Amino acid sequence: MTAASHDVTVRGGRISTEHETFEADIGIRDGVIVSIEKNLPPGQHDIDASGRWVLPGGIDSHVHIEQLSGMGMMCADDFYSGTVSAAFGGTTTIIPFAAQHRGKRIPDVVADYAARAREKAVIDYGFHLILADPDEVALKHDLPKAIRDGITSLKVYMTYNTLKLDDYQLLDVMALAGSEGALVMIHAENHDMIRWVAQRLLDRGHSAPKFHAVAHDPLAESEASGRAMALSRLIDVPVLIVHVAGAETVELIRSAQRLGTQVYAESCPQYLFLTADDIDLPGVEGAKFCCSPPPRDPRSQQAVWDGFKDGTLGIYSSDHAPYRFDESGKLPNGEATIFKDMANGVPGIELRMPLLFSEGVLKGRITINEFVALTASNHARMYGLAHCKGDIAIGMDADLALWNPAREVSVSASMLHDNVGYTPYEGMRLQGWPELVMSRGRTVVENNTLKVARGSGRYIARRQPDATVNIKTPASASRLPGLLGLKGKAWQRA
Ligand code: URP
Ligand code: ZN
Ligand code: ZN
């Protein structure tokens, strides 16, 4: 091998994948990893990784960027600030949502998001579709085409007036996803429980942000999650429950998985590091911590840690939902804003990985290999990116983050690169930081500086999620698919 055979070498680092940890150099050519061995000859450009942990760049598979929410609020981050912020936190691929609102056609929605991302993103990205209007054209024509074009996952909502699907519609969508080989992501909360409790709270004058957590009772989450899993079992189609918050929901998912249900689950930093007590602040300050489902209590935090540790929860995403603490987002009516009118969601795209590295890996709650699985490799498999992302192996994109495990950081909104203006994690002291971040062999972040141009990220047409092809269905699975003549990818296993 000659010196010129590598465009870049990353030398002397401690490499961790989801399976192993070892010391080696990494040789990169044309943005792809082509060599992993000790003592590689110098490349055209050499990066010294001694004292650093070299990990796969993160994949954040749940982010809202430049998106109009169900309540009509525009996110504070566009595809530039959102992807820059992701990169500074060690993430090299994001999967945001192309959000359909009722009455909009899917091809127009996808084209709109694609155009905006193309000119701004600095790291690679795919899209999920948010599906609010599963009419006949969508189910028969537009969705199959979008899935074939690489949007191989769909998010559906069981709550929010403008997004909510009923159980019949959920079954329609699951059946379609089953036949086309896409994954259904479910926002599981019982709409009527929430609005019934919320109305009674407001009738009694309880309008402060902390009542958001009361209105979104843990039972609303666990009931809807249980129902979603029952619908999925009825027709034997895999689903993924997103942003799991409550201990009871974690336990329900664990039990369903033991029964052989093809249910996957995601949770997020806000459910590890925040509780409902954080929302209980004077005035409207608590709005900064409001998301749906809301952060719960220490027991639920522990359940989420346990779920990550034992594999019940395989996906750790940010659910970055960036809204400013002003009229544009959290406070549409200023200080008079009631909890029902605040934009839902918290930012977290940049801190997702540093939080888990510091509090999970360095405090001994999870291993470094589990960290890699939870932040990158599992996302790659679940969302059809495993052919190019989420691993350090020959043939993979050279998406790498060089972590300094000794670096201490005191979190403040001013050090972050999103456009939100606050962070729910203000003042936390973290250890470990991704100091150099690389996407397809290009250094994106180094010395706390962005090194790449706007629009240099690439769209990735995703493949079929592995979850829909690799999971064996137990003998007890539903007989309905056979009886109903359901045909397609999900049922070919039987
Ligand atoms: O509160 C949240 N999670 N907001 C973002 C939108 C969603 O439902 O994921
Ligand atoms: Zn959601
Ligand atoms: Zn979300």
What does this protein look like?
The chain has 494 residues and is α/β, with parallel strands linked by helices. The chain has a domain at 57-379: TIM Barrel (Alpha-Beta Barrel), CATH 3.20.20.140. The protein is built from 14 helices and 18 strands.
Strand element count: 18
Structure annotation, total helices: 14
- Would you tell me the structural class of the helices and strands? alpha/beta
Q: Tell me the CATH architecture of one domain.
A: Alpha-Beta Barrel
Q: In percent terms, what proportion of residues is strand?
A: 15-25%
CATH superfamily label of one domain: Metal-dependent hydrolases
Which cofactor or ligand species appear?
A: N-(aminocarbonyl)-beta-alanine, zinc ion
Mean pLDDT across all residues, rounded?
Answer: 95
Task: State the end-to-end distance.
Answer: 48 Å
CATH topology of one domain: TIM Barrel
Major sheet: 9 strands, mixed
What's the shape?
globular
- Percent helix: 25-40%
CA radius of gyration is 22 Å
Low-confidence blocks of residues: none
CATH domain class of one domain = Alpha Beta
